[in-house]
């Protein structure tokens, strides 16, 4: 077929118009894509996936600068900074969000909550306290109060911690009686350390009223009275402890024996120690008993060993029988057993496993309260 050049007069304008339309459509689509997902986001994401966090942060900062209205990206960046310990940058991001006039109240409260966490993480407790206080009456009030409680505990501000715990209790966040009793005990210890021992008894009685079954206030009360030369009253406090919280009596077995000895009435402590031993045998009780009644400790230890093969009972029994062995054999054997027993005579946090020779009411590892059973690791 022969080509007719007249066709071009028709086809060329149509092709031109179609081409122009297609180019318009393409550039619109391209602009839309550019607006919705700028290159910087992809660059940041790519770097993040390649574990190049520093470069990823720079790319995200660039994206935020190009698109300052994106609050979600600000939140993501702020939280990334805080997790990496760059709290100063996290604070800047969250303060910028709070200052912005175009975000919702919910987002502003959220930014305030994030900012408070930044200050807390940075150890700026005064500023964290003020930032959390701003969250009263918002959806973050409960979280803010719990964070304030933890903040006051860390800064050992027991009076403020007690106020916040009472507020949480009133708001229906469960019972805080046990914690409040601990705060009162802590206040009693502070009063004593600062030379105001006269304030301690009232605080401890208040603690006992707040949490009648919590052991600590009775333990402290007995120990304070014993130190003050009032063994009769100390013994009364230990007797009350045995009634309200028998397992914790282990912690005062030695003090109880000392109080009865001071009083010249060893039989009173012997009765308490035997009563608890029959209920829950332990080496705490047996060793206290031995200070008051040396006989028949050998038989008691042998009987204990048959039921509870504890290394510390074997050590004590070996010490009692040492005279029957050649001196150059007995001493090294006792030493070897004592070395092996030492790690077993610790207390262990049931929540985190932190072990210590000292008994803690608040675990120094996980900061939980009342997580140490009042028994040595050997007897758990
Ligand atoms: Zn712990």
UniProtKB/TrEMBL annotation:
It comes from the Bacteria. Keywords: Cell inner membrane, Cell membrane, Iron, Membrane, Metal-binding, Repeat, TPR repeat, Transmembrane, Transmembrane helix. SMART domains: TPR (SM00028). The chain crosses the membrane at residues 6-23. It holds the Pfam family TPR_16. TPR repeats lie at residues 215-248. Residues 347-371 form the LapB rubredoxin metal binding domain. It is found in: Cell inner membrane. Fe cation binds at residues 349, 352, 363, 366. Gene3D superfamilies: Tetratricopeptide repeat domain (1.25.40.10). Signal peptide: none annotated. InterPro entries: CellSynth/LPSAsmb/PSIAsmb, LapB, Rubredoxin_2, TPR-like_helical_dom_sf, TPR_rpt. It is a single-pass membrane protein. NCBIfam families: PRK11788.1-3 (NF008755). Belongs to the LapB family. HAMAP family: LPS_assembly_LapB (MF_00994). This is Lipopolysaccharide assembly protein B. The lineage of its organism: Bacteria, Pseudomonadati, Pseudomonadota, Betaproteobacteria, Burkholderiales.
């Amino acid at each position: 077929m022969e080509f007719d050049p007249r066709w071009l007069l028709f086809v060329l304008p149509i092709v031109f118009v179609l081409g122009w339309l297609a180019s318009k459509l393409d550039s619109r689509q391209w602009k839309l894509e550019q607006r919705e997902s700028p290159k910087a986001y992809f660059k940041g994401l790519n770097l993040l996936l390649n574990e190049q966090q520093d470069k990823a942060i720079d790319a995200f900062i660039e994206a935020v600068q190009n698109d300052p209205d994106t609050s979600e990206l600000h939140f993501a960046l702020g939280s990334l900074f805080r997790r990496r310990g760059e709290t100063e940058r996290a604070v800047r991001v969250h303060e910028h969000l709070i200052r912005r006039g175009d975000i919702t109240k919910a987002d502003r409260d959220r930014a305030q909550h994030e900012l408070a966490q930044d200050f807390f993480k940075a150890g700026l407790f005064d500023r964290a306290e003020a930032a959390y206080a701003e969250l009263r009456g918002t959806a973050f009030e409960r979280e803010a109060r719990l964070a304030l409680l933890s903040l006051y505990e860390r800064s050992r501000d027991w009076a403020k911690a007690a106020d916040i715990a009472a507020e949480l209790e009133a708001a229906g966040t469960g019972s805080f009686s046990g914690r409040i009793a601990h705060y009162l005990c802590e206040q009693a210890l502070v009063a004593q350390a600062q030379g105001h021992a006269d304030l301690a008894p009232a605080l401890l009685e208040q603690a006992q009223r707040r949490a009648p079954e919590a052991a600590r206030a009775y333990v402290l009360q007995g120990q304070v009275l014993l130190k003050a030369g009032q063994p009769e009253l100390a013994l009364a406090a230990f007797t009350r402890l045995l009634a309200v919280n028998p397992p914790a009596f282990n912690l005062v077995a030695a003090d109880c024996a000392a109080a009865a000895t001071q009083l010249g009435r060893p039989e009173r402590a012997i009765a308490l120690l035997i009563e608890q031993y029959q209920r829950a045998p332990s080496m705490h009780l047996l060793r206290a008993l031995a200070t008051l009644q040396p006989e028949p400790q050998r038989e008691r230890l042998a009987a204990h060993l048959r039921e509870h093969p504890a290394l510390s009972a074997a050590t004590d029994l070996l010490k009692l029988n040492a005279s029957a062995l050649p001196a150059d054999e007995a001493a090294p054997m006792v030493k070897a057993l004592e070395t092996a027993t030492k790690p077993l005579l610790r207390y262990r946090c049931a929540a985190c496993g932190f072990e210590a020779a000292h008994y803690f009411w608040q675990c120094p590892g996980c900061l939980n309260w009342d997580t140490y059973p009042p028994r040595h690791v050997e007897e758990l």
